[in-house]
Amino acid sequence: MDLAQPVEELKGIGPKTAETLKKYGIRTLRDFFYNIPRDYENFAAPTSISEIQPGKIVIRGKIDKISTRRARRRNLSVTEGVISDKTGSIKTVWFNQSYRAKQFDPNKEYYFTGNFELKNGRYSLISPSAALVSDVDTSAGLAPIYVAHGALKSADFRRLINNSRDKFAKIPDLLPNITPGLRRDSLFKVHFPTSMEEIKRSRDYLAYEELFALILAAKLNRRENEKLQAVKIPFSLPKIQDFLEKLPFKLTGAQKKAAWEIFQDLEKPTPMNRLLQGDVGSGKTMVAALSAYEVAINDGQVALLAPTAILAMQHYEGLKSLLNQFGVSVALLTGATKNKPELKKQIASGKIDLIIGTHALLTDDTEFKNLALVIIDEQHRFGVEQRQKLMLKSPSGLAPHLLAMTATPIPRSLQLTIFGDLDVSILNELPKGRQPITTQILQEIEAREKLYPKIQETVSKKQQVYWICKAIDDNPRAETTSVKTRCEKLREIFPKLKIEILHGRMKQAEKDVIMEQFAAGKIQILVSTTVVEVGVDVPNATMIAIENSESYGLAQLHQLRGRVGRGKEASFCFLLTASDNQPSRRLRELEKSSDGFYLAEVDLKLRGPGEIYGALQHGALDLRIATLSDTKLIHQAQIDVDKFLQNPDNMLKYKELMQGIKRYQQITTLN
To answer: Which fold has domain 44-135?
Structure first.
């Protein structure tokens, strides 16, 4: 069976159903069979109401007395009902699911699955899922639960899968050196399981498939990179020593090691493909400066691509001040740069050694004479096509060396999979003099008592404050305070302070003015969205308050916290939460640790690779089953991929596998 065939080939899927499935990425037979259940419910043995205990339960019963009301808390609807069986009745409640009031027939029985817990002083079944008894086949004991796709609910997909039951026997194997039929059996058992042990074994194999393909793609990318030729940049020991002796500080051990790894790569005839990862404030820019200097004194040009104009400007000011004294010419190219034609002529003629810029570097009319090194800051913020466009700007036909930098530490498991074609340098030391950041979780109602006095104390020391908000404008449907409203409230509380707003919808020129004023100390409190997350360097800012902190991922919170603690004064981060519940593990981990590498591992387990890898690429990555924190499975897949690559015939023999990894190759490569 060819799994590339359209989904319409299956029984019961007509044009209308097929169109709905295609909207949600289910276009082929492969997409269909790999639409794995998100969970399973044991409807065969529901608990009678008289015997239920707090926790997750499945009960079978009828429901009536349903009504919906508005809660005092704005924009929250509460739908309540009573579920009954022969042994008794319990209350159930759904939040912001008002459609539930019209969903049920009081004369029919349903399976309800949810958590029975204490809420507002009484026990209720909280936001349960519901399935009509007549729609559920309990003969196997376990019923798969699928993600709803528009009008297609979980029960609809169960029916479609059941209609296609006979097709599973024709599914071909994908990988070499496995038990024949293992793929077919694993797919069948995740859709038609008889035990949880069977589900686990089947999911483990399917996860292994994904990891195998991902690692194979990364290794093939590395092979392709090794076929390219680059300009060899000889190591200039006397000049590098002179450079380091004139610095007003000493490099950390980690910086020295990373710089030496880069110098060795630059001497090779194949292009460097290195990721420099380091926590906030670990000195990545200094390592980049050394790399740029080494290339410039060997008559090569360097392009540094930054994700924002603010960060590009900061890099420009810092690197120009540092490198000009050594004869390295530095220029800035952004959308706001004046006299662009003249600057681009100088770049094309080779008069500029280091060009720092944003997307303006990617335009067709930006040409280089001898582009030998590309440095990409916060590489995950650029799409593959953008990165590749810059890499192709070397007119010599030789590939430029690539140094990608990220302040978001990459967990080891991601280094082995998504970034498997890269060499990695790690900066795990902070320069001397940096003070640790004290982090504290506060309920928002405590702000007036604890936070406002701390703000007053901070500004009285001539230091500055960030206040981070989730939204730009007020939204009556969301429990968030906008930057505009928060700014007004803070101005009422601190009428003598200069308080300004920064957000992504402002024009670039407006944002630049605000940041320049903040950096110059003219603004005491900057109320901002997450536009300050990356690259804003204001050493005098020693306090940050993050509102609605529960709504951010751990990696992003760590990045935001990194806006302070950049000078020699003690700094503070306050994580504000509106909930009266216990803080999440995410916030508690951030409160106790400032180690970005440790937090990256925790974040991967809690949220997956989305934030670490970048939303654009992760969306395309589309791992259905594999967990990139499963180092044991990753290790086994690595061993097997190496064996696979020893036989060149495998790449011709396993056509479906090789076709499938092409998308992984596109989204995991940096060049």
So the answer is: OB fold (Dihydrolipoamide Acetyltransferase, E2P) (2.40.50)
